[in-house]
Amino acid sequence: METSRVKPGLNGVEGQKEATQAAGKPLGLVGEALRAFALALTLVAAVVMGLDKQTTTVPFQVVPTLPPLQVAVTAKWSHSSAFKYFVVANALVCIYSALSLLASLLTSARKKNLSLAVPIAIGDLIMVAVLFSTIGASMDFGLLGMHGNSHLRWNKVCNVYGKFCEKAIVAIALSSIGALVFFGLVVLSIISLHKRSK
Amino acid sequence: METSRVKPGLNGVEGQKEATQAAGKPLGLVGEALRAFALALTLVAAVVMGLDKQTTTVPFQVVPTLPPLQVAVTAKWSHSSAFKYFVVANALVCIYSALSLLASLLTSARKKNLSLAVPIAIGDLIMVAVLFSTIGASMDFGLLGMHGNSHLRWNKVCNVYGKFCEKAIVAIALSSIGALVFFGLVVLSIISLHKRSK
């Protein structure tokens, strides 16, 4: 985090230049490492959920006097609105992570006065909103899959699609860590801007 | 929003005092108005959802040759994990809105140097995360209620519990505006802190 401020009387012009560069650069090395981590997390979350599919057989009783037929059934991420939103949201957050990481690295390398601190902090805040909403939706769908809802006569399905549910849990857990990383990035931005304002 | 900064040479001590007060006061009148608005929105959202209940009758076929029996069924917010989380989350956000509004008003009234800008910005950020996650969960549950999920044989229920679903939609819409208000408060904090750091 940059905390450099203009020291009056101590090479004023250079100090001013450094302070302007610091104000433009979004969070430095810690921010870049966190952004790369969030990129990896949301990428893996989107891929794990996007490839989540399980075909299994369930017994189906046609005539009570005969043994049940074994019917093949498939669970797929695209069968749920929540999981579709999850894949799209994590893919978009992953792209944003890459772009914001690139912008941060270019600002560091070129030492130009690009005031990226505010747009990147607001971008990170949008990612917090998007990720928390998709995690909420996916967790609700996951819980219904695990426990069902007896009041609405929605049966649980994770007893049939065990592996599908396990992979979905892994994807949601990864995305949740990604959401916490973006939460941390916004907190760091707030603290960094506050330190500079002192 | 406060943008006052120390003007060197122009009554330095007073200027420093004003700037310190400005840095401690979280967003001024706009912030206080938004906080009061968020308080009202989340309060009404929690109450509308918390009182949401509908009893109706559905036909139930016992014997194929006889006319169906009319059975009373009830939909209630507490039958869903998502809606339970919604009520608790909106109630907590409502309490936070009241406390942060009080803190902001007291800071303004006493003109004390209480540096509340950072803790309140982080508090607002937590509210963004909480509200967006509960809206995601409730919208997923609401969509399943409206359309069902044919792949999992979960039938839609909003054709039976129409009024219940309508009230839930109103509550979710109010809470969504509340979430956007907190999003706006965090954006204002970031911009305000950035202006002071210039």
SSE string of chain A, helices as H and strands as E: HHEEHHH
What oligomeric arrangement do these chains adopt? homodimer
Largest interface: A-B, 47 and 47 residues
Extract low-pLDDT stretches of chain A.
1-24
Strand fraction of chain A equals: 5-15%
Number of helices of chain A: 5
For the CA atoms, what is the radius of gyration of chain A? Answer: 24 Å
> What can be said about the biggest beta sheet of chain A?
2 strands, antiparallel
Strand tally of chain A, please? 2
Q: What fraction, in percent, of the residue positions of chain A are helical?
A: 55-70%
Mean pLDDT of chain A, to the nearest integer, reads: 85
- Spatial separation of the terminal alpha carbons of chain A: 15 Å
Envelope shape of chain A: elongated
Structural class of chain A: mainly alpha
Structurally, how many domains make up the residues of chain A? 1
Strand arrangement within the widest β-sheet of chain A reads 1-2
